[in-house]
Amino acid sequence: MSTKERSGCPISLSLELIGDRWTLLIIRDLAFAGKRHFRELLQSDEGISSRTLAERLQTLVDEGVLTRSDDPTHRLKAIYRLTEAGIDLLPILATLGAWGSKYRKADKDLARVAKELAAGGEPALERMKKSLSKEHLG
Amino acid sequence: MSTKERSGCPISLSLELIGDRWTLLIIRDLAFAGKRHFRELLQSDEGISSRTLAERLQTLVDEGVLTRSDDPTHRLKAIYRLTEAGIDLLPILATLGAWGSKYRKADKDLARVAKELAAGGEPALERMKKSLSKEHLG
DNA sequence: GAAATTGGTTCCGTTTTAAAAGCAATTTAC
DNA sequence: GTAAATTGCTTTTAAAACGGAACCAATTTC
Q1: Buried (b) or exposed (e) across B49-64, using 16+ Cβ within 10 A?
Q2: Is the pTM of this model over 0.90?
Q3: Per-residue pLDDT reduced to its tens digit, B39-68
Q4: Which positions in chain A touch B47 (Cβ < 8 Å)?
Q5: Does B61 reach chain A within 8 Å, measured CB to CB?
Q6: A79-126 pLDDT tens trace
Q7: Which has the closest alpha carbon to A91: B136, B77, B101?
Q8: Residues 62 through 91 of chain A touching chain B, CB cutoff 8 Å
Q9: Is B123 on the interface with A (CB under 8 A)?
Q10: In this complex, which of A9, A12, A46 lies closest to B12 when CB atoms are compared?
């Protein structure tokens, strides 16, 4: 993930940060699966390597999409949370999920969930954003 | 771009195909810039290499997101067009554009365009989809 | 006190990517 | 009619990204 920007196009700038095979899966697990710790995020079905996970988390923190804080109940644990910018990635996850449900061979149950979120339109997204704000921003 | 699927998650499946730094920029240029030919697509501000462009176009055709056809007016030219699946990527482009406009240092004018499309909501997207259908599906 | 758990780091081999040059077929300019 | 330009790629070479496995010190659990 290089840092040199290629153009001022908003789509391009987004892709420079989240345009890869892993970043949005990390966000997905923070948003939908309630994961907060490194070892939890390591356990995704897709099997991210610890090296890649560590690097992505670092960049996401640096770029203001996540925060990293100490777990008060366990000194070795770090807590990763979404920032407002991270929560605002939700519409992207939703549209990706809707497209994948429609055009790829997706798991039935997960496809249904994705379609429901998409069918709910902006109101459903706003509700979920608010819920995420409570969980992640406190 | 490996072909082995990592999970049945719709988001993950979408990212396997379009989760990289280039694919959605190609779609963007087909959808917003009216580009149709290889050399036109090569001229993006971001400077994709001809090797990467060729490989991406091939997979997108294979996966049913684009079509490739001969240009009747010029034997050396090929015409790339969006399929229905390609046109349905528009909401993803729109949300990516909106996020980039809000959280990255985007060009002012392009940010305005992106925000307008997002502000128009689903009706604006549907209108643009119909317009793209006319242009690409004929 | 030994074993397990924590968030990573290090190493190494493979895959992906960028940059540049090249190419045969065709079209355009003169 | 011929030389130059244009077409969609392919080839080559080198650099960067990535995956897998092992490893680590600090801490927590048993």
Answers
A1: eeeebeebbeebeebe
A2: yes
A3: 999 999 999 999 999 999 999 999 999 999
A4: 6
A5: no
A6: 999 999 999 999 999 999 999 999 999 999 999 999 999 999 999 999
A7: B101
A8: 64, 85, 88-89, 91
A9: no
A10: A46
